[in-house]
Amino acid sequence: xxxxxxxTAVGVxxxxxxxxxxxxxxxxxxxxxxxxxxxxKKSKLYDADPLVLxxxxxxxxxxxxxxxxxxxxxxxxxxxxxxxxxxxxxxxLPATKIIxxxxxxxxxxxxxxxxxxxxxxxxxxxxxxxxxQGLHRSIFVSTAHSFSxxxxxxxxxxxxxxxxxxxxxxxxxxxxxxxxxxPFLINVYPFFAYKDNPTKISLDYVLFEKxxxxxxxxxxxxxxxxxxxxxxxxxxxxxxxxxxxxxxxVSETGWPSLGDPDEVGANILNAQTYHANLVKHVTSSNGTxxxxxITPEIYLFALxxxxxxxxxxxxRNYGLFHPDGSKVYxxxxxxxxxxxxxxxxxxxxxxxxxxxxxxxLFS
Length: 363
What we know:
- The chain is globular and about 55 Å long.
- The chain has helices at residues 4-7, 28-37, 50-55, 72-75, 78-88, 113-132, 163-180, 190-196, 203-206, 226-240, 268-283, 338-362, and strands spanning 14-17, 42-44, 62-66, 97-105, 140-146, 150-152, 160-161, 184-187, 214-216, 221-223, 248-253, 297-300.
- The strands form 3 sheets. The chain has an 8-stranded parallel barrel with strand order 1-2-3-4-5-8-11-12, surrounded by 4 helices. A two-stranded antiparallel sheet has the order 6-7. The protein has a two-stranded antiparallel sheet with strand order 9-10.
- The chain is α/β, with parallel strands linked by helices.
- The protein is built from 12 helices and 12 strands.
- Pfam families: Glyco_hydro_17.
- It catalyses: Hydrolysis of (1->3)-beta-D-glucosidic linkages in (1->3)-beta-D-glucans.
- The chain crosses the membrane at residues 343-362.
């Protein structure tokens, strides 16, 4: 079984979450143009909205789609799961490129043990329905997790899952992912850690800026940003349960451009810095200190500011765009060609210098 990282080893692995909890968003056809204008070729939905999937036919943009949490019980029925896959997946293929299905979002950070118990059966049924259609090798099945499912995350090597869910729920899911080759989806938000403890956590450290970083004395690995540290904490937690070949996919990460007075760090400058440095970090093909050869695929949260999201002000201000299509701040997903141009020019100069040197030497 091919592992997910083998599928994403080439190209810039950055996508954007297309949330729709708002009453003022542009039509899906306009969103197509918007994503194309910023050179984004990957997107993630929290449902399988047919209007969106139809609008993106023949665009080359890939989608990870989701199921509603309320559908988990129904998806535990194989007949319903088969019908769901036929209606929401097969009907849109191959014109719309669907590469993954997220069965439930952040279920294991809730207290609903009944819903938790239905996640894996629902995943298994969706996978079986895909397999019956011959689609199980091209579309993965997973579930998305909040970082809060870890009971320990520092130092990264001590990463462990909450004991209340580790053996009962997470380990069987890891077994499923290991067998099917699917990624483990994790939502990573250094902002939350900084907001909760701004006097002890360096802003430079969470924004990928230059800092002294932190040392994991257990491994000797040095971390210069919290994103990598959180990723490796999850890898460590997975390894602690006996699985060592499962790849992480960052299903959400972002920084709010506005927040309440007590949401320290939520502003446009920090949001712009976080996203710019994150993109630079990922497009440099650097993995994490623990997994240096694996470049994570990430999905930024989110495409738009969504005015109907509940919670603090920050929840409605994670967008890269305002609903009218204007940027909240300047950003780019395309690496500057300056560094490549400089490298090419330097290489040419070196070659010319060597040619002149040898001509002089042998003349």
